[in-house]
# Entry
Amino acid sequence: MDEVLVCGLNWVGDGIMSMPALQAFRRMNPTTRVIMLVKPKVAALWRLHAVPDRLIELRAGMRGTVRAARAVGDSQVRRAYVLPHSFRSALVPYLARVPERIGFPGHGRDWMLTEVRRQVADAARRHQAWEYMGLLAPESAASGGLEYPALEIGGAIRRRAEALLEGLDEPRVGLVPGAGRGPSKRWPAEHFIELGRLLRAGMGAGIAVLGAPGEERLCRQVAQGIGRGARSLAGRGGLDLFAALLQSCRAAVANDSGGAHVAAAVGTPVVVIFGVTDPEVTGPLGRVVEVVRTPGGVGRDVPRDSLEARRRLALIQPETVYRRLERVIERTGVH
# Structure
């Protein structure tokens, strides 16, 4: 059986933006076995996706690199697609002696690739997902659009999410105040608190404040600030439970972060707050995605803590987000 290696991306949002390309690749290559090389922190994400047949975890350090290369070398992989731009991501298939190694140029690694594919500038296809389409599924990229990313939540984890949400008023709204990139992508906690209060007063919503391990303090602050009817569930489990909790909400509000992409990928309507970054480049792909932003997005790269980015985010008022979310809930009906 033909096997390929896909070196996956390191961030949740980036990984989800690569899913349309993987789905197109699977459609065009239904009998090919897909092995994905991913870091442990995003492995749970890929267990929710239908395309990977096997995961190999890339652990830290040179020892982790060598172990991953050995695991790849023990397989029947004939071709590797290197999605990240990093040196290390190309090093693994090179050390594993994969015959064909395809990736983007730069970072001093071109000599480790057998085929360097350069991105084609196209004003109509600025979204980051098109990069991965050009690498994994160029034929589909030339002729079609982007599929929505799709995560599949199993029954057991769905039931666990429902148990954690039990007792919250309907409609249930998920608030995701964190962002792995840092303060430059975080709407102020005080704005999330005010939004939660508006949701309680205006529609009697039950508020689930959600976040990753390490964001418990922020989420607890937001839930306590909202008061009765809000519950912090940050850090209660892995990415699978986080995704299941979002799927069980009628709608969600999130920063330009992995949480917004997860919400869209499980089919939950989501309002996404953008500051200086550009939603045309990194916006979530999904059935119902609404963007609230300040003018003049600059792309996808932003320092972890930029005064200008925080200032721009603070200009977006809770009332604006509330009105947008209200329209989303009215338009989408029962979730």
Notes: Residues 189-203 form the longest helix (15 residues).
